[in-house]
Write a structure and sequence with these properties.
Low-confidence stretches: 1-12
Structural class: alpha/beta
Radius of gyration: 16 Å
Number of strands: 7
Number of helices: 8
Shape: globular
Helix content: 25-40%
Strand order of the largest sheet: 1-7-6-2-3
Length: 195
Protein backbone atom coordinates (compact mmCIF):
# COMPACT_ATOMS: atom_id res chain seq x y z
CA UNK A 1 0.00 0.00 0.00
CA UNK A 2 1.49 3.34 -1.04
CA UNK A 3 0.32 6.35 0.91
CA UNK A 4 -0.51 9.35 -1.24
CA UNK A 5 -1.11 12.70 0.43
CA UNK A 6 -4.15 13.50 -1.70
CA UNK A 7 -5.98 10.31 -0.68
CA UNK A 8 -5.19 10.82 2.98
CA UNK A 9 -6.53 14.35 3.19
CA UNK A 10 -9.62 13.89 1.05
CA UNK A 11 -10.93 10.39 1.57
CA UNK A 12 -9.39 8.56 4.49
CA UNK A 13 -11.52 7.65 7.43
CA UNK A 14 -11.29 9.20 10.86
CA UNK A 15 -9.69 5.97 12.12
CA UNK A 16 -6.96 6.05 9.49
CA UNK A 17 -6.26 9.73 10.16
CA UNK A 18 -6.09 8.94 13.88
CA UNK A 19 -3.70 6.00 13.46
CA UNK A 20 -1.39 8.09 11.23
CA UNK A 21 -1.65 11.06 13.58
CA UNK A 22 -2.89 13.42 10.88
CA UNK A 23 -3.98 16.77 12.28
CA UNK A 24 -6.08 19.53 10.79
CA UNK A 25 -3.87 22.61 10.54
CA UNK A 26 -5.41 26.06 10.43
CA UNK A 27 -2.28 28.10 11.10
CA UNK A 28 1.35 27.93 12.11
CA UNK A 29 1.58 27.11 15.84
CA UNK A 30 4.89 28.14 17.42
CA UNK A 31 4.39 25.87 20.44
CA UNK A 32 3.87 22.77 18.26
CA UNK A 33 6.87 23.77 16.17
CA UNK A 34 9.07 24.08 19.26
CA UNK A 35 7.73 20.76 20.63
CA UNK A 36 8.96 19.04 17.48
CA UNK A 37 12.40 20.62 17.79
CA UNK A 38 12.54 19.58 21.46
CA UNK A 39 12.14 15.96 20.32
CA UNK A 40 15.47 16.18 18.43
CA UNK A 41 18.45 15.08 20.59
CA UNK A 42 20.89 17.82 21.62
CA UNK A 43 23.70 15.85 19.98
CA UNK A 44 22.26 16.51 16.50
CA UNK A 45 23.60 19.55 14.64
CA UNK A 46 20.93 21.10 12.43
CA UNK A 47 19.51 24.39 11.24
CA UNK A 48 15.76 24.81 11.47
CA UNK A 49 13.87 26.87 8.90
CA UNK A 50 10.23 27.96 8.92
CA UNK A 51 9.06 28.00 5.32
CA UNK A 52 6.60 30.57 4.08
CA UNK A 53 3.73 29.25 1.99
CA UNK A 54 5.20 31.08 -1.02
CA UNK A 55 8.58 29.38 -0.60
CA UNK A 56 7.07 25.89 -0.46
CA UNK A 57 4.79 26.68 -3.39
CA UNK A 58 7.89 27.73 -5.37
CA UNK A 59 9.55 24.43 -4.45
CA UNK A 60 6.52 22.51 -5.75
CA UNK A 61 6.52 24.54 -8.96
CA UNK A 62 10.21 23.75 -9.49
CA UNK A 63 9.12 20.24 -10.56
CA UNK A 64 9.38 20.04 -14.33
CA UNK A 65 6.32 17.82 -14.80
CA UNK A 66 3.22 16.78 -12.87
CA UNK A 67 4.88 13.71 -11.34
CA UNK A 68 7.67 15.80 -9.88
CA UNK A 69 5.21 18.40 -8.64
CA UNK A 70 3.38 15.62 -6.78
CA UNK A 71 6.66 14.45 -5.22
CA UNK A 72 7.80 17.98 -4.38
CA UNK A 73 4.43 18.78 -2.79
CA UNK A 74 4.39 15.94 -0.27
CA UNK A 75 4.25 16.88 3.45
CA UNK A 76 7.34 14.84 4.37
CA UNK A 77 10.39 14.83 2.11
CA UNK A 78 14.03 13.88 2.60
CA UNK A 79 16.55 15.13 0.06
CA UNK A 80 20.24 14.21 -0.02
CA UNK A 81 22.70 16.27 -2.05
CA UNK A 82 26.36 15.66 -2.84
CA UNK A 83 27.61 19.17 -3.44
CA UNK A 84 25.01 20.55 -5.93
CA UNK A 85 23.65 17.20 -7.14
CA UNK A 86 20.52 15.56 -5.76
CA UNK A 87 21.54 11.95 -5.12
CA UNK A 88 18.63 10.56 -3.09
CA UNK A 89 14.97 11.59 -2.73
CA UNK A 90 12.27 10.27 -0.40
CA UNK A 91 8.70 11.38 0.23
CA UNK A 92 5.84 10.00 2.29
CA UNK A 93 4.03 8.89 -0.89
CA UNK A 94 6.89 6.47 -1.62
CA UNK A 95 6.92 4.87 1.83
CA UNK A 96 4.94 1.73 2.51
CA UNK A 97 1.85 2.36 4.60
CA UNK A 98 0.34 0.18 7.28
CA UNK A 99 -2.08 0.77 10.14
CA UNK A 100 0.89 1.57 12.40
CA UNK A 101 2.58 4.16 10.21
CA UNK A 102 5.00 4.32 7.30
CA UNK A 103 7.91 2.04 6.46
CA UNK A 104 10.57 4.25 4.88
CA UNK A 105 13.04 1.36 4.62
CA UNK A 106 11.35 -0.51 1.78
CA UNK A 107 13.87 -2.80 0.06
CA UNK A 108 16.43 -1.71 2.69
CA UNK A 109 16.72 1.76 1.15
CA UNK A 110 18.06 3.23 4.39
CA UNK A 111 20.58 0.51 5.18
CA UNK A 112 23.42 2.28 3.38
CA UNK A 113 24.56 5.87 3.23
CA UNK A 114 23.54 7.60 1.04
CA UNK A 115 20.11 5.90 1.16
CA UNK A 116 18.91 4.38 -2.11
CA UNK A 117 16.60 6.90 -3.74
CA UNK A 118 12.89 6.09 -3.75
CA UNK A 119 12.60 7.49 -7.28
CA UNK A 120 15.02 7.73 -10.21
CA UNK A 121 17.03 10.90 -9.67
CA UNK A 122 17.50 11.64 -13.38
CA UNK A 123 13.76 12.37 -13.71
CA UNK A 124 13.74 15.00 -10.96
CA UNK A 125 16.11 17.59 -12.49
CA UNK A 126 16.62 19.27 -9.13
CA UNK A 127 19.76 20.78 -7.61
CA UNK A 128 20.87 22.28 -4.33
CA UNK A 129 21.22 25.62 -6.11
CA UNK A 130 17.50 25.54 -6.95
CA UNK A 131 16.77 24.94 -3.28
CA UNK A 132 19.07 27.69 -2.02
CA UNK A 133 17.43 30.13 -4.43
CA UNK A 134 14.09 29.44 -2.68
CA UNK A 135 15.60 29.04 0.80
CA UNK A 136 18.63 31.35 1.05
CA UNK A 137 19.19 30.15 4.65
CA UNK A 138 20.47 26.87 3.22
CA UNK A 139 24.20 27.11 2.70
CA UNK A 140 26.74 24.36 2.30
CA UNK A 141 30.22 25.57 1.55
CA UNK A 142 32.32 23.12 3.53
CA UNK A 143 30.41 19.83 3.84
CA UNK A 144 30.28 17.02 1.31
CA UNK A 145 26.59 16.27 1.85
CA UNK A 146 23.51 18.38 2.47
CA UNK A 147 20.39 16.74 3.89
CA UNK A 148 17.12 18.66 3.77
CA UNK A 149 14.18 17.33 5.77
CA UNK A 150 10.75 18.86 5.04
CA UNK A 151 8.10 18.24 7.72
CA UNK A 152 4.78 19.52 9.01
CA UNK A 153 2.77 19.35 12.23
CA UNK A 154 -0.12 18.19 10.07
CA UNK A 155 1.75 14.87 10.33
CA UNK A 156 3.77 15.24 13.52
CA UNK A 157 3.90 11.52 14.31
CA UNK A 158 4.93 10.54 10.78
CA UNK A 159 7.43 13.41 10.62
CA UNK A 160 9.09 12.18 13.80
CA UNK A 161 9.26 8.62 12.48
CA UNK A 162 10.85 9.84 9.24
CA UNK A 163 13.37 11.97 11.13
CA UNK A 164 14.29 8.98 13.31
CA UNK A 165 15.15 6.91 10.23
CA UNK A 166 17.38 9.71 8.92
CA UNK A 167 19.23 9.79 12.24
CA UNK A 168 19.44 6.00 12.44
CA UNK A 169 20.87 5.86 8.93
CA UNK A 170 23.59 8.36 9.82
CA UNK A 171 24.39 6.59 13.09
CA UNK A 172 24.36 3.03 11.70
CA UNK A 173 26.72 4.05 8.91
CA UNK A 174 29.04 6.02 11.22
CA UNK A 175 28.65 9.23 9.25
CA UNK A 176 30.51 11.95 11.10
CA UNK A 177 28.73 15.30 11.49
CA UNK A 178 31.70 16.96 9.79
CA UNK A 179 30.55 15.34 6.53
CA UNK A 180 27.04 16.78 6.28
CA UNK A 181 24.82 19.77 6.91
CA UNK A 182 21.27 19.06 8.05
CA UNK A 183 18.38 21.46 7.46
CA UNK A 184 14.94 20.89 8.93
CA UNK A 185 12.25 22.84 7.08
CA UNK A 186 8.80 23.25 8.61
CA UNK A 187 6.00 23.77 6.06
CA UNK A 188 3.02 24.45 8.36
CA UNK A 189 2.30 27.85 6.78
CA UNK A 190 1.72 26.10 3.46
CA UNK A 191 -0.22 23.07 4.71
CA UNK A 192 -2.48 25.17 6.95
CA UNK A 193 -3.87 26.68 3.72
CA UNK A 194 -4.67 23.30 2.13
CA UNK A 195 -8.31 22.28 2.49
Amino acid sequence: MILFFSSITSSCSFLLKKSYGINDLTSFDKENYEDFLAFIPDTINYISIISSKEQFRSKIESGIDNNNKNDFGQPIQILYFNEDSLISFHANCHAKGSLRGLDWNINNRFESFVPISAVPIKHLDYTLNKTTYIYPEIKNKDKKYTIIFFWTNMMTKLSKEAFKIVMKNLSDNNIDKSQYSLYIVNTDYYFSTIK
